[in-house]
Amino acid sequence: MSDLSEIREKIDAIDLQLLRLLNERATLALEIGRIKSRDGLPIYAPDREIALLRGLVEKSEGPLSPAAIRAIYREIMSAALALEKNVVIGCFGPEGGACHQAAKARFGSSVTYTFFPEVGELFEAIGRGEGDCGVVPIEQAGHGAANQTLDALAATDLTICAEITSTPDGAPAESDSGSRYFVMARTATAITGNDRTTLLLRIENKPGALVDALEPFRAAELNLSHLASRPASKGSKDVFFFVEVDGHARDEDFGGVLRELSRSCRAVKVLGSFAKTTL
């Protein structure tokens, strides 16, 4: 066994190699940023991010844990994003709050964060181009669905491009006691093959209306989960139902489902398709 000084010398040599490779990676990230700017492409590509992290975890031979690999590369990707562009992420709530912490877990510490007291204000700012993405709560531990976000989703032209999930310290990863956040952007995401789509269905508030509205999902054998419901508007008896279904809105068989939904619902809105966060 080598003594401590010899081991440290080896680590120092490896660190220099890592630094050289990281700078090479950063140079390529700068080139990607120029191409995205030239072609009008969004800086943040969550489908690419998920695929990269999943591939690294699968190919790793240890001893680094999957969580450690994701944490390391989260910061590497954050630094790369910051080189491509001055990336601005809007967060609902105060600095250091739950949304800010969730956003940092997704985007790292190298990007710029801004903060909004109202979800609607955040959506409007992102829509005006005053930020690249916005992070808002959709399900909060101990409180259920976030009504302010649901109401804003019904009115916005932004799209859900990613989700962030968090669980309390000490809770298992599969626990349902955690919180969930949506990442909102101005452009839709690509198909990954392991996607989820959030829809808003406006239906009449009468017996059997919801069962009829959901029939296309059963006929297409699509796995469906229910997020929440909200009154459609003042003076109306219609109800907004927010549902999630496995698949991407641009999948080949999804168009038929949307057409059928439009026949049984007063309105159908695709709020966004995004890669499932399971790595």
Molecular structure report:
This protein is of the alpha+beta class. Helix content is 43%, strand content 25%. The chain has eight helices and ten strands. The strands form two sheets. Strands 1, 2, 3, 4, 5 and 6 form a six-stranded mixed β-sheet that branches. The chain has three domains: 41 residues; 144 residues, Periplasmic binding protein-like II (D-Maltodextrin-Binding Protein, domain 2); 81 residues, ACT domain (Alpha-Beta Plaits). The two termini are 37 Å apart.
Strand content: 25-35%
At CATH level 2, the architecture of the largest domain is 3-Layer(aba) Sandwich
Q: Going by CATH, what is the homologous superfamily of the largest domain?
A: Periplasmic binding protein-like II
Radius of gyration, CA atoms, in whole angstroms: 21 Å
- Ranges where pLDDT stays below 50 over 5 or more residues in a row are none
* CATH class value of the largest domain: Alpha Beta
User: What does the main sheet amount to?
Assistant: 6 strands, mixed
Briefly note the structural class of the backbone.
alpha+beta
In CATH, the topology of the largest domain is named D-Maltodextrin-Binding Protein, domain 2
Helix content range of the residues, please? 40-55%
Tally of DSSP helical segments: 8
How many domains? 3
What is the molecular shape?
elongated
The termini sit apart by 37 Å
Q: Would you tell me the overall average pLDDT?
A: 88
What is the N-to-C succession of helices and strands? HHHEHEHEEHEEEHEEHE
Quantity of strands, as a count: 10
